[in-house]
Amino acid sequence: MKNLSFVINGILAVAIIILFILFFKTKTTTENAPSLKFENDTTATLPIAYVNIDSVLTNYQYAKEASDALMKKTETSRASINQKQKQLVSEQQEFQRKYQNNAFLSQERAEQEAARIQKLGAELEQTAGRLDNELTMEQIRVNNQLADSVRLCIKEFNKTANYHIIFSNSGLDNVLYAKEKYNITNKVIELLNARHASASKK
User: Fold this and answer.
1) One Pfam family from the UniProt entry (predicted)?
2) Which pTM value belongs to this model?
3) Domain-wise residue ranges, the chain
4) pLDDT, tens digit (0-9, with 9 covering 90-100), for 10-28
5) Which CATH class is domain 34-201?
Protein backbone atom coordinates (compact mmCIF):
# COMPACT_ATOMS: atom_id res chain seq x y z
CA MET A 1 0.00 0.00 0.00
CA LYS A 2 2.86 2.31 0.86
CA ASN A 3 4.51 1.49 -2.48
CA LEU A 4 1.33 2.44 -4.35
CA SER A 5 1.10 5.78 -2.51
CA PHE A 6 4.75 6.44 -3.27
CA VAL A 7 4.22 5.74 -6.99
CA ILE A 8 1.15 8.02 -7.13
CA ASN A 9 3.03 10.86 -5.38
CA GLY A 10 5.90 10.42 -7.84
CA ILE A 11 3.55 10.63 -10.84
CA LEU A 12 1.90 13.76 -9.41
CA ALA A 13 5.30 15.39 -8.85
CA VAL A 14 6.33 14.67 -12.46
CA ALA A 15 2.97 16.00 -13.73
CA ILE A 16 3.43 19.23 -11.74
CA ILE A 17 6.95 19.70 -13.14
CA ILE A 18 5.65 19.16 -16.71
CA LEU A 19 2.85 21.70 -16.13
CA PHE A 20 5.35 24.29 -14.88
CA ILE A 21 7.55 23.75 -17.93
CA LEU A 22 4.59 24.10 -20.32
CA PHE A 23 3.31 27.20 -18.53
CA PHE A 24 6.62 29.09 -18.67
CA LYS A 25 7.28 28.02 -22.28
CA THR A 26 3.84 29.32 -23.39
CA LYS A 27 4.33 32.58 -21.51
CA THR A 28 7.75 33.17 -23.11
CA THR A 29 6.40 32.44 -26.60
CA THR A 30 3.48 34.82 -26.08
CA GLU A 31 5.76 37.59 -24.82
CA ASN A 32 8.10 37.23 -27.80
CA ALA A 33 5.29 37.08 -30.39
CA PRO A 34 4.69 40.27 -32.41
CA SER A 35 1.83 42.38 -31.12
CA LEU A 36 -1.29 42.64 -33.26
CA LYS A 37 -2.33 45.87 -31.53
CA PHE A 38 -2.11 49.05 -33.62
CA GLU A 39 0.51 51.47 -32.42
CA ASN A 40 0.64 55.19 -33.28
CA ASP A 41 2.75 54.30 -36.30
CA THR A 42 0.21 52.49 -38.48
CA THR A 43 2.90 51.53 -40.99
CA ALA A 44 4.32 49.08 -38.44
CA THR A 45 1.34 46.74 -38.69
CA LEU A 46 -0.98 47.86 -41.48
CA PRO A 47 0.81 50.15 -43.97
CA ILE A 48 -2.20 51.65 -45.72
CA ALA A 49 -3.83 55.09 -45.82
CA TYR A 50 -6.43 57.05 -47.76
CA VAL A 51 -6.87 60.56 -49.12
CA ASN A 52 -10.25 62.28 -49.37
CA ILE A 53 -10.25 63.81 -52.87
CA ASP A 54 -13.23 66.10 -52.14
CA SER A 55 -11.25 67.72 -49.32
CA VAL A 56 -8.19 68.05 -51.55
CA LEU A 57 -10.21 69.85 -54.25
CA THR A 58 -11.77 72.12 -51.62
CA ASN A 59 -8.55 73.02 -49.77
CA TYR A 60 -5.76 72.71 -52.35
CA GLN A 61 -4.92 76.29 -53.37
CA TYR A 62 -4.06 75.42 -56.98
CA ALA A 63 -7.35 73.52 -57.37
CA LYS A 64 -9.26 76.57 -56.10
CA GLU A 65 -7.34 78.92 -58.41
CA ALA A 66 -7.84 76.64 -61.42
CA SER A 67 -11.54 76.28 -60.64
CA ASP A 68 -11.96 80.07 -60.33
CA ALA A 69 -10.10 80.66 -63.61
CA LEU A 70 -12.24 78.09 -65.39
CA MET A 71 -15.40 79.64 -63.94
CA LYS A 72 -14.38 83.11 -65.15
CA LYS A 73 -13.61 81.75 -68.62
CA THR A 74 -17.00 80.01 -68.70
CA GLU A 75 -18.80 83.19 -67.63
CA THR A 76 -16.92 85.26 -70.25
CA SER A 77 -17.83 82.76 -72.97
CA ARG A 78 -21.47 82.71 -71.95
CA ALA A 79 -21.62 86.51 -71.82
CA SER A 80 -20.12 86.73 -75.31
CA ILE A 81 -22.57 84.16 -76.73
CA ASN A 82 -25.55 85.82 -74.99
CA GLN A 83 -24.59 89.23 -76.38
CA LYS A 84 -24.26 87.86 -79.94
CA GLN A 85 -27.52 85.97 -79.54
CA LYS A 86 -29.35 89.14 -78.46
CA GLN A 87 -27.86 90.97 -81.44
CA LEU A 88 -29.02 88.19 -83.78
CA VAL A 89 -32.56 88.22 -82.35
CA SER A 90 -32.64 91.99 -82.70
CA GLU A 91 -31.59 91.80 -86.36
CA GLN A 92 -34.12 89.03 -87.05
CA GLN A 93 -36.90 91.17 -85.54
CA GLU A 94 -35.76 94.21 -87.53
CA PHE A 95 -35.75 92.15 -90.75
CA GLN A 96 -39.24 90.86 -89.99
CA ARG A 97 -40.52 94.39 -89.37
CA LYS A 98 -39.01 95.73 -92.60
CA TYR A 99 -40.27 92.77 -94.63
CA GLN A 100 -43.84 93.18 -93.33
CA ASN A 101 -43.73 96.95 -94.09
CA ASN A 102 -42.28 96.41 -97.61
CA ALA A 103 -39.23 98.50 -96.62
CA PHE A 104 -36.87 96.59 -98.95
CA LEU A 105 -36.38 98.11 -102.41
CA SER A 106 -36.64 94.69 -104.03
CA GLN A 107 -37.23 91.00 -103.30
CA GLU A 108 -33.57 90.37 -104.13
CA ARG A 109 -32.47 92.85 -101.44
CA ALA A 110 -34.77 91.15 -98.88
CA GLU A 111 -33.31 87.75 -99.78
CA GLN A 112 -29.77 89.12 -99.38
CA GLU A 113 -30.62 90.43 -95.91
CA ALA A 114 -32.26 87.14 -94.96
CA ALA A 115 -29.15 85.24 -96.13
CA ARG A 116 -26.90 87.57 -94.10
CA ILE A 117 -28.93 87.01 -90.93
CA GLN A 118 -28.97 83.25 -91.55
CA LYS A 119 -25.16 83.33 -91.90
CA LEU A 120 -24.90 85.22 -88.60
CA GLY A 121 -26.96 82.45 -86.93
CA ALA A 122 -24.69 79.72 -88.35
CA GLU A 123 -21.57 81.62 -87.23
CA LEU A 124 -23.03 82.05 -83.74
CA GLU A 125 -23.72 78.32 -83.54
CA GLN A 126 -20.15 77.53 -84.64
CA THR A 127 -18.71 80.01 -82.13
CA ALA A 128 -20.80 78.51 -79.30
CA GLY A 129 -19.62 75.01 -80.24
CA ARG A 130 -15.98 76.12 -80.43
CA LEU A 131 -16.11 77.87 -77.05
CA ASP A 132 -17.84 74.87 -75.47
CA ASN A 133 -15.14 72.57 -76.87
CA GLU A 134 -12.38 74.89 -75.57
CA LEU A 135 -13.92 74.86 -72.10
CA THR A 136 -14.17 71.05 -72.15
CA MET A 137 -10.52 70.72 -73.21
CA GLU A 138 -9.48 73.22 -70.52
CA GLN A 139 -11.39 71.22 -67.89
CA ILE A 140 -9.63 68.02 -69.00
CA ARG A 141 -6.24 69.78 -68.92
CA VAL A 142 -6.86 71.14 -65.40
CA ASN A 143 -8.11 67.74 -64.16
CA ASN A 144 -5.01 66.00 -65.56
CA GLN A 145 -2.75 68.64 -64.01
CA LEU A 146 -4.46 68.25 -60.63
CA ALA A 147 -4.20 64.44 -60.80
CA ASP A 148 -0.48 64.64 -61.69
CA SER A 149 0.13 67.15 -58.92
CA VAL A 150 -1.57 64.95 -56.31
CA ARG A 151 0.25 61.80 -57.53
CA LEU A 152 3.65 63.51 -57.39
CA CYS A 153 2.90 64.92 -53.95
CA ILE A 154 1.83 61.54 -52.57
CA LYS A 155 4.93 59.90 -54.08
CA GLU A 156 7.10 62.51 -52.36
CA PHE A 157 5.15 62.20 -49.09
CA ASN A 158 5.46 58.40 -49.12
CA LYS A 159 9.26 58.49 -49.28
CA THR A 160 9.17 58.96 -45.51
CA ALA A 161 5.67 57.63 -44.69
CA ASN A 162 6.35 54.19 -46.26
CA TYR A 163 2.75 53.20 -46.90
CA HIS A 164 2.24 50.16 -49.14
CA ILE A 165 -1.16 51.31 -50.42
CA ILE A 166 -2.78 54.76 -50.47
CA PHE A 167 -6.43 54.84 -51.53
CA SER A 168 -8.31 57.79 -53.00
CA ASN A 169 -11.75 58.37 -51.54
CA SER A 170 -14.61 60.61 -52.58
CA GLY A 171 -17.64 60.45 -50.33
CA LEU A 172 -18.04 56.71 -49.77
CA ASP A 173 -16.86 55.64 -53.23
CA ASN A 174 -13.83 53.55 -52.24
CA VAL A 175 -13.48 53.51 -48.45
CA LEU A 176 -16.74 52.64 -46.72
CA TYR A 177 -15.16 52.74 -43.26
CA ALA A 178 -11.70 53.45 -41.89
CA LYS A 179 -10.35 54.70 -38.60
CA GLU A 180 -9.31 58.34 -38.67
CA LYS A 181 -5.65 57.44 -38.15
CA TYR A 182 -5.57 56.09 -41.72
CA ASN A 183 -6.74 59.44 -43.11
CA ILE A 184 -3.69 61.34 -44.41
CA THR A 185 -5.71 63.97 -46.32
CA ASN A 186 -4.61 66.97 -44.23
CA LYS A 187 -0.94 66.02 -44.48
CA VAL A 188 -1.23 65.72 -48.27
CA ILE A 189 -3.08 69.05 -48.53
CA GLU A 190 -0.38 70.77 -46.44
CA LEU A 191 2.34 69.39 -48.70
CA LEU A 192 0.40 70.28 -51.88
CA ASN A 193 -0.12 73.88 -50.73
CA ALA A 194 3.50 74.20 -49.63
CA ARG A 195 4.71 72.97 -53.03
CA HIS A 196 2.26 75.30 -54.83
CA ALA A 197 3.34 78.30 -52.76
CA SER A 198 6.98 77.50 -53.49
CA ALA A 199 6.30 77.17 -57.23
CA SER A 200 4.32 80.44 -57.29
CA LYS A 201 7.30 82.37 -55.87
CA LYS A 202 9.59 81.26 -58.71
Assistant:
1) OmpH
2) 0.65
3) 1-33, 34-201
4) 554 555 555 555 555 544 4
5) alpha beta
